[in-house]
Specification:
Layout: H1 10-21, E1 25-28, E2 39-42, E3 48-51
Antiparallel strand pairs: 1-2, 2-3
């Protein structure tokens, strides 16, 4: 995911595109004051979900 090193917010768009390809309707939240999530999903059944995107460098250990 080195392509997102200079523009990490682009990863959210990448994830939204992936979910759209799976049949979801997606809405990417603003880069700041996003309410704690990055993407709002709506499935074909109308169920809404939220997604928090994290993009780590290869080999990096995420902080939990």
């Amino acid at each position: 995911m080195a392509a997102f090193a200079d523009h990490p917010a682009g990863f959210e768009g990448f994830c939204a595109d992936m979910f759209r390809s799976l049949g979801y309707t997606t809405e990417v939240t603003p880069a700041s004051r996003d309410g704690g999530y990055d993407i709002l999903l709506r499935g074909r059944d109308g169920v809404m979900s939220i997604v928090e995107c994290k993009c780590y460098a290869h080999g990096a250990t995420p902080v939990v």
